[in-house]
Write a structure and sequence with these properties.
This protein is mainly α. It contains 5 helices and no strands. The radius of gyration is 14 Å and the shape is globular.
Length: about 90
């Protein structure tokens, strides 16, 4: 799945609020819970990298990106906003 597809899925879940959705449950807990989850996942990526565990790095990076996308969507920040910032840094 591409990041854009995942971002759209998150956006869709936020709008439609399907019952039993992990994303909806996390969003309902509020921004502090999402921020905490991003922090936890970032630490797990660092630990996996420190342990040189490639499979774990991939898994934890996927978790980090997923939760970061939830946070970005909550804050109405699109992937295009991020891409624009990266382009500006590369000039």
């Amino acid at each position: 799945m591409k990041l854009e597809e995942l971002y759209e899925l998150i956006k869709n879940r936020r709008e439609k609020k399907p019952e039993g959705s992990y994303i909806v449950g996390l969003l309902d807990k509020g921004v502090d819970s999402v921020i905490q989850k991003v922090g936890e996942e970032a630490v797990e990526v660092v630990i996996a990298a420190k342990n040189s565990d490639k499979k774990r790095i991939v898994s934890e990076s996927a978790d980090l990106l997923f939760h970061l996308l939830i946070l970005l969507e909550m804050k109405d920040i699109s992937l295009n906003d991020i891409y624009s910032e990266l382009r500006e840094r590369n000039k």
